[in-house]
Design a protein that fits this description.
heterotrimer, A mainly beta (65), B alpha/beta (260), C alpha/beta (370), A: mainly beta, 5 strands, globular, B: alpha/beta, five-stranded parallel β-sheet, three-stranded parallel β-sheet
Chain lengths: 65, 260, 370
């Protein structure tokens, strides 16, 4: 289904947030996930569903000044 | 006057004994961050928040920062107060702590911060319990506004980000130091340890150095050099060797007797 | 040297001091305080009424500069009055010739007695003073006096009537090394009023005395106006101008400034412009900021409490244990006819202790002439 991921419209087969992370080939341990403007703690990723039209941000802390 | 051994800086409920703040930006290799922190003794370091996806994935920077070092996430990328606020909230929710460096920049040519949006963001975030360190263009009036808005310190730029031109804004910063009720942390533009020492001699409370360390040939040694310079400058200031405040303090120890 | 100080002083005769002082704003004062190399406009700013609001920052910088250039030291000296014969009619002075009191002139033996007492106090720098009576105290008398004092003191300054170069040279060869000469008042009109007759009525001769002295090689020259005669801030400016002129023309000579201010001596006129403590301090601070290396000498005319404070405000030399009457140390320790009232009557030991209590070092001997 179509979701808005990091500002882009993408098609995803993920059912849960954790699925999405793995689908994106990302390491969960270094990620911050925000679904529809709400930050979701990592322990809940396996239970939070991904629905059509969701706005999802996957972020991480990187080097910056 | 204070002895350097007892010299501490309180910020956000934390006592810092090292007045060199550092940053994680522009490091050629993230592996150098931990040894740089060790060598410099810096106790506060900035990080940024970025979107990641399968194309632009990066290693977790937290792997390279000891837990004893305070994280200072910045709101880089934000162009409005609202965007800055959002980034701050995300960082906090993600477990980065309550410190936040507000960086709102709409000027892509010189990267000069938007003081106006910065004050707005400060007000919102301070109310939510953040320890707000706003990055700003040196301005005595804006400093006052940030104090009223609840900032915990003010971070005037020495010269524009990345220019390494040192204390171009010296006279403005001096005015801020003379009048600010908040600690003054000179951020951006410090390119050499002597410039960091100069800022401390002027009476700055701390300096933040990122580019000069990260892009040097030896960031570990550079970090140590900056740390020593900051300490030397601070000791000079404490020993009364340096410039005093421009305007008299409320008391007049030398001439007060003339009013009697 | 093509221009003398007279030419310089004349340039300022038509300067609108009041107009300038009224135009000074606080920002001008703060800029002048911040500057490292002050010019005449800065001096004016610091002497303006506006600067009264900035005395503390002026003081902080003045203290810092004084310590930078002089260390935390105060030089001590004592005056020795050897004759109060005077032909002048200075309306403000206790030795004015129309004041009826018995005049005294010390013999060489008596001078030596004074010297012994002063030297026993620990003093090594003295100032010899006379009135203006060249017939009574001719050059030979002065030369002999200096020769005697040479045995007791390392430095002898002369605070006597203005003399020619040749006479100064002779006195220098005899052992005098410094000259103190107060203009009294730089305003020529007021000068004429208060010096109606006698040799002293010659304004320009007196004005050029410091440079005559410097020209023949006196090591140190001390100048200053007598505050109370002319408008204080204008006099302070002219004195500052004079000092900086001397500093410029005679780079190897130590220039110092004093702030003698009128109180009341015997049958004296009321000062027309009383100098308040606040103004006194302001002038001192302005001078210090304008000329960081200038000496500033404070006499015992000033009260103990005030002198204690001045240590931290840029003073560099103090008189101590002073007697301001002829023979005041040995011959006539209790005499009424003083040139000015000594307000700070503390002994050398007491002054030294006070200086140390303030974290400074009293210097009794600064140098020696061979």
């Amino acid at each position: 289904m179509e979701i808005n991921l990091n500002g882009n419209l993408v098609v995803s087969k993920a059912k849960t947030l954790m699925d999405l992370v793995l689908e994106q080939d990302l390491d969960p341990s270094s990620l911050i996930a925000e679904v529809n403007l709400k930050v979701i703690p990592q322990e809940n990723w396996k239970t939070v569903p991904v629905r059509k039209g969701d706005t999802i941000e996957l972020l991480s802390l990187v080097g910056g000044g | 006057m204070t002895d350097i051994r007892n010299d501490k800086m309180r910020l956000g409920g934390i006592e810092f004994t090292n007045r060199l703040f550092t940053g994680t930006g522009k490091f050629a290799s993230l592996e150098l961050i931990a040894p740089m922190l060790e060598a410099s003794g810096s106790q506060l370091i900035t990080v940024a928040l970025r979107r990641v996806d399968k194309v632009s994935k990066r290693e977790n920077i937290l792997n390279h920062i000891p837990s004893s070092v305070t994280l200072l996430p910045n709101t880089s990328g934000a162009r409005t107060a609202d965007e800055a606020v959002r980034i701050a909230r995300i960082a906090r929710e993600a477990g980065c702590g309550k410190f936040i460096k507000i960086e709102v920049i709409t000027d892509m040519k010189y990267l000069m911060p938007d003081n106006h949006e910065t004050v707005k963001a400060t007000e919102i975030l301070a109310k939510e319990g953040f320890v707000v360190l706003p990055y700003m263009t040196p301005d005595v009036t804006v400093t006052r506004q940030l104090y009223d808005a609840g900032a915990s310190a003010v971070m005037p730029l020495g010269s524009p980000i990345g220019t390494n031109r040192g204390l171009e804004m010296k006279s403005m910063i001096k005015m801020m130091i003379a009048t600010s009720k908040l600690p003054v942390v000179v951020d951006a533009g410090i390119g050499r340890p002597s410039q960091a020492a100069e800022a401390m001699e002027m009476g700055a409370d701390a300096v933040l150095v990122n580019t000069a360390i990260a892009t040097s040939l030896d960031p570990v040694q550079a970090g140590m050099a900056f740390s020593m310079a900051v300490k030397a400058g601070r000791m000079a200031f404490l020993s009364g060797m340096a410039d005093r405040k421009l305007m008299a303090a409320a008391s007049s120890p030398l001439t007060g007797f003339l009013r009697e | 040297m093509t221009m003398s100080f007279l030419d310089k002083a004349i340039q300022f005769q038509s300067f609108d001091f009041d107009g300038y002082f009224n135009s000074v704003i606080l920002e001008d004062v703060m800029n002048s305080i911040e500057n490292d190399d002050l010019d005449l406009y800065d001096l004016l700013n610091l002497l303006s009424g506006t600067a009264q609001a900035a005395l503390e920052p002026m003081a902080q910088k003045a203290k810092k500069l004084t310590i930078q250039h002089f260390g935390k030291t105060i030089g001590l000296y004592a005056p020795i009055y050897i004759s109060d014969y005077c032909t002048n009619h200075c309306t403000y002075c206790g030795f004015n010739r129309s004041n009826g009191f018995e005049r005294t002139m010390l013999s060489m033996q008596e001078i030596e007695a004074e010297a012994r007492v002063v030297a026993d106090m620990g003093i090594r720098h003295v100032v010899i003073l006379t009135g203006e009576a060249p017939l009574m105290t001719p050059l030979s008398y002065l030369v002999n006096a200096v020769r005697i004092l040479r045995h007791y003191f390392s430095s002898i300054a002369l605070e006597i009537f203005p003399m020619d170069e040749n006479d100064y040279r002779i006195l220098k060869d005899a052992g005098a090394d410094s000259l103190t000469i107060y203009q009294e008042v730089y305003d020529p009109n007021i000068y004429r009023e208060v010096h109606p007759e006698g040799r002293k009525s010659n304004y320009s001769y007196r004005l050029l005395t410091p440079e005559r002295g410097a020209g023949i090689g006196f090591r140190a020259i001390n100048i200053g106006p007598l505050f109370g005669l002319g408008k204080p801030m204008i006099e302070a400016f002219m004195a500052g101008l004079h000092a900086s002129y001397l500093e410029q023309e005679f780079p190897d000579v130590e220039i110092s400034l004093s702030l003698p201010r009128m109180r009341k001596a015997t049958s004296c006129i009321e000062p027309r412009h009383m100098l308040s403590d606040r103004d006194f301090v302001q002038i001192m601070l302005a001078w210090r900021l304008f000329m960081p290396r200038i000496g500033i000498t404070i006499s015992t005319r000033e009260s103990p409490a005030f002198r204690d404070r001045l240590i931290h405000l840029g003073a560099t030399r103090y008189s101590a244990g002073s007697r301001t009457n002829v023979g005041g140390y040995a011959l006539k320790p209790i005499d009424a006819t003083v040139q000015f009232e000594v307000t700070d009557k503390r002994s050398v030991a007491e002054i030294s202790r006070m200086i140390r209590n303030n974290g400074y070092e009293p210097i009794l001997k600064d140098w020696e002439m061979f």
